[in-house]
Design goal:
Elements (H helix, E strand, L loop, with lengths): L9 H23 L26 H18 L2 E6 L5 H10 L2 H5 L7 H9 L28 H9 L5 E8 L6 H6 L13 E8 L15 H10 L3 E6 L3 H29 L8 E6 L9 E2 L2 E2 L18 H12 L15 H4 L43 E3 L1 H14 L4 E5 L17 E2 L14 E2 L4 E3 L3 H13 L3 E7 L7 H14 L11 E6 L17 H5 L7 E4 L4 H13 L4 E5 L4 E3 L4 H10 L1 E3 L13 E6 L1 H17 L5 E6 L17 H8 L5 E5 L3 H8 L8 E4 L10 H7 L4 H11 L3 H4 L1 H21 L4 H4 L6
Parallel strand pairs: 1-2, 2-3, 3-5, 4-5, 9-12, 9-13, 10-11, 13-14, 14-16, 15-16, 19-20, 19-21, 21-22
Antiparallel strand pairs: 6-7, 8-17, 18-20
Length: 790
Amino acid sequence: MSSVDQALTQQELQSMHAYWRACNYLAAGMIYLRANPLLKEPLKPEHVKKRLLGHWGASPGLSFTYIHMNRLINKYDLDAIFLAGPGHGAPGVLAPVYLEGTYSEIYPNKGEDEEGMGHFFKEFSFPGGIGSHCTPETPGSIHEGGELGYSVSHAFGAAYDNPDLIVTVMVGDGESETGALATSWHSNKFLNPIRDGAVLPVLHLNGYKINNPTILSRISHEELEALFKGYGWQPYFVEGSDPLEMHQKMAATMETCVQEIRRLQQEARSSGKPVRPRWPMIVLRSPKGWTGPHKVDGHKVEGFWRAHQVPLGSVQENPQHLAQLESWLRSYKPEELFDATGKLLPELKQLAPKGQRRMSANLHANGGMLRRALCMPDFREYGAAIDKPGTVSAENTRPLGKLLRDVMRENMTNFRVFGPDENSSNKLDDVYAVSKKVWMADYLPEDADGGELSPDGRVMEMLSEHTLEGWLEGYLLTGRHGFFSTYEAFVHVIDSMFNQHAKWLAMSKAVSWRAPISSLNLLITSTVWRQDHNGFTHQDPGFLDLVVNKSPDVTRIYLPPDVNCLLSVGAHCLKSTDYINVIVSDKQKHLQYLDMESAIKHCTKGIGIWDWASNDAGYEPDIVMASAGDIPTKEALAAVVLLREHFPDIKVRYVNVVDLYKLTPQSEHPHGLSDKDFDSLFTLDKPVVFNFHGYPQLIHRLAYRRHNHGNWHVRGYKEKGSINTPLELAIQNEIDRFSLVIDAIDRIPRLQVAGAHVKEKMRNMQIDCRNYAYEHGVDLPEVDHWTWPY
């Protein structure tokens, strides 16, 4: 061992190693023991859990890195948090969290004594207890790892606008094979060393996934080093298996990295020049299942994939396995680590940081404690002037961009806008007047002409929805605010990330000590009905179907039909906490319907009759025409006009839906309408034609328990379309005004025969519109430029 590796004195080395032994003992104990936590008596089958769950393989490396970061927190008074990328590595994090006392403070029945340790062991991966990930119940966690790939992007999200924070993130080598993780290494091009904190990744190469080798562990040192230098990092390697040597190497290397981080930050902050440095990272190569059983039944375990989960199974039935388990647990010498009461020895206890310097008690890891409400301008000032409904058109999202611009101006340290190279396309580019796009990579002269790039920017753009979503989640989880817009067809890229964040929020609501965080606000634009030029691949409104699968406590869906409704909804969402707010609004020009005060009332209710579009006041309607979404609303209103023109005596009620969950019963979602209110709107026995933005079956799914559901007929996207005009696309999917009129005639008994001539006229109009589109490449002007006539 070279002198440069002698970072620890012999006393420090022995203490660090003892502390790590305690971590490993606790990690193994969590997986196996339900009684006899200190091994004060010989191990018996009844002391062992009957169902062995958990993951040993990555745990020793996690606790190894955690406690070495603790040493530097103490030495340099660092503000730091820890993210565990390996999905099932919770024992390697829970152990040091318990040893530093935070776990017992939050959960008094898991006290720092023999009884508390027994509860701590038993409840891990046990019915009624905690899971094998770093779930929201884990103090200090903002990253569960239930799905691999998001640790680095979460870490960077936490570091943005946190200049003093160091985020140590442990990256599993299996996790490194995911696309989401691969793109997130580029996050270093977006970190400003003056105003942001730092991310210290530790790539943990333990060689194996569940039962396969990992790619990065099976390439040469030179190739691996070149890979990360190509990503823009400066990799430092800590490799070996001898614990004492590895402690010295890790101590020296991690301290070098922390000093380098501080030097780079100081250089940038003293010079005022936010250049992109080559940030340090660590490659930690250690055996999988380090310090566990070397062999079981003659098969290699430590350093092989068999160490991934439970190295020793059948302990209840196999005396040899039970004896080997006892030998393994006693190899950590718990009697040298804990006193007779089960408390960690004082000389070891002092190795942990104190108070909020503990990574498990750092307020950044309970971001709601640091969250400040946004300073919000009055959204009313950005609205469209509406003198008469349905007669003027405007780009729905552009006024929202102006609102976001001013939200940014008033919140320049805790608000960011995220989007995958689409903010200008989505008509949100007014934000650049206040803050440009973050860019720490190289510049070309032409960038000065419309590039909107700056190292001081606060608009986050990268063509990786995964990375953007991870940044946003990390930013929100550490107490800040954000807004994410993306194309509707490609929001599916983050389906799984949405799932995981929704689960995190749902679980967090049951954890009393977690403070509310800002909602994840997601604008879905460039929508299906305006993807006629991009074709079939860009037509998919199915994200909404995914959203309704998640807990009603955390999901909200809004389909504002015009500018003023979008502004009202957007402002509401920006102020909210602990939700995922999904807003669907197209970026193109659309008819405008409601003045601002009417829009506010409509959005507050979430659903309502538009009196000006109805003629049934004082009567029971012959039909209820309803819609949700901008284009479906225009076509539904045009259908109302056609019906009234051709059948002057018909009574039509028009209902518009902004809050999609209003369709569900109150018992299913807190926003659901009562049955009485729902029946008042949609009647008990009259036909309902519902024109919907997405897939029709979603509306049936939400409303299937309603009294009049049998009379509902829903139109929506039916996977038909390619390079069409907008109206032709609507006709193909039968959400156009002509199809809606035909539906109404078919469902109003007295019109089923009398309406035959009008049905023929509607079909002829569809043919005329299609033929015009095929000849001229645009829609028939009198149909395309239709306005409300009354």
